[in-house]
Specification:
By secondary structure, the protein is an alpha/beta fold. It is built from 15 helices and 14 strands. Strands 1-2-3-4-5-6-8-7 form an 8-stranded mixed beta sheet. Strands 9-10-11 form a 3-stranded antiparallel beta sheet, with no helix packed on it. It has a 3-stranded antiparallel beta sheet with strand order 12-14-13. Helix 11 runs antiparallel to helix 15. It is globular, with a radius of gyration of 21 Å. The chain binds iron/sulfur cluster (SF4).
């Protein structure tokens, strides 16, 4: 569920959101209409992810309304993982308690850093104190599954300052940590500043060093990497929802710009709150486009997404899904990558090494271009 409102746009972000929240009541009524129009797929649901945008800019009663509607319209199982993304500076203890009462059992906090110079560069509205309080309040509200997001690769960041952020994060003992590499998405203000030479990006080798640092440091603190950017203190604490994306499972996306996928069709909604509301108020599903994935495209996605996971591609699952023999198609290329220390294989799986994870995109494209 994409809640498309933010207090302020961060210059690096290319997710669709607006800062004018005057349409929030109408938006909630229309997302409920969208749920009513799309609630009959032949699935049971065991995750609900309320992301954005910044869902925590909405009043809790609006969030409660969408959760109650989703629970009644979709076949949401009793032990479903229900996550909300919150940003420090937009929550108070009462709000977090109300989220808990509304049935939310997992909270993902967009901390990004604990250092002022990084907040300034990233254009974030909060302080390190706000971040610490949000984590503490979530714990006090009774959340037993708290995730913290951090960003590395920020210009000027050193290995020591990144260690400080990681160290500070684990002091709060979150169950889950996401460490995202700063990327310069085309068309964002930060990407334009980069093109104009306003700042110098961190060099690629240093970014690679920090990536390796994450894995080593967090392993020493009992956080196992289970996906390129994601770490958890136990298998049961991994994001059940995000694992579905990496396993190419079907999902329904609601809200402006949200994507849905039911194999082999992917579709996406209009990336405009006003167009989204207008369509739904006039009885139309606000779809902006769709594509039907070919068998080769499905295989490529399975490989790309499978290689994101530390466990790698489940080869027997791949073979039965496509009625193929994975190692017969890709064996030669896999052997080459294995000799270079980029991939490891066994009877059942094929995964990138830490070194290989730095080359995910190029390894995937070489595999599929030479395999098909
Ligand atoms: S708060 Fe999050 S969604 Fe909103 S602009 Fe910043 S990064 Fe993007």
């Amino acid at each position: 569920m994409h809640i498309p409102f933010c207090v302020k746009k961060c210059p690096y972000c290319d997710f669709y959101s607006i800062t004018d929240t005057s349409l929030k009541q109408r938006f909630i009524s229309t997302i409920i209409s969208e749920m009513k129009m799309t609630c009959n797929p032949p699935f049971k649901f065991d995750t609900l992810y309320i992301g954005g945008g910044t869902p925590s800019v909405l009043d809790t009663k609006l969030i409660t309304r969408v959760i109650e509607t989703a629970s009644s319209l979709y076949n949401l199982l009793a032990d479903s993982e229900i996550t909300i993304e919150v940003n420090p500076g937009t929550v108070k203890p009462e709000k977090l308690k109300e989220y808990k009462d509304a049935g939310i059992n997992r909270i993902s906090i967009g901390v990004q850093s604990f250092q002022e110079r990084n907040f300034n560069f990233l254009g974030r509205i909060h302080t390190a104190e706000d971040a610490g309080l949000a984590i503490q309040w979530a714990r006090d509200a009774g959340f037993e599954n708290i995730g913290i997001d951090l960003i590395y690769g920020i210009p000027g960041q050193t290995r020591e300052s990144w260690y400080c952020d990681l160290h500070q994060a684990v002091l709060y003992e979150p169950e889950h940590l996401s460490c995202y590499m700063l990327t310069y998405e085309l068309g964002t203000p930060m990407e334009k500043d980069l093109q104009n030479g306003t700042f110098k990006p961190m060099d690629g080798k240093m970014v690679g060093d920090l990536f390796t640092t994450n894995i080593e440091f967090l392993a020493g603190k009992s956080y196992a990497q289970y996906e390129i950017s994601n770490f958890a203190r136990g298998k049961n604490l991994r994001s059940r929802h995000n694992q579905k994306y990496w396993s190419v499972a079907p999902y329904i996306g609601l809200g402006p710009s949200a994507h849905s996928f039911i194999e082999p069709r992917r579709c996406w909604n209009k990336a405009s709150v006003t167009a989204y509301i207008k369509d739904l108020e006039e009885g139309r599903i606000p779809v902006d486009g769709q594509e039907v994935l070919s068998r080769e495209q499905m295989m490529t996605e399975s490989i790309l997404l499978g290689l994101r996971k530390a466990d790698g591609i489940d080869v027997s699952e791949f073979n039965s899904r496509f009625d193929e023999n994975f190692f017969e198609i890709f064996g030669k290329q896999i052997d080459d990558f294995e000799k270079k220390g980029l991939i490891v294989t066994n009877q059942t799986g094929c995964a990138l090494t830490v070194k290989g994870m730095l080359f995910l995109d190029s390894i995937t494209s070489m595999l599929v271009s030479q395999g098909f």
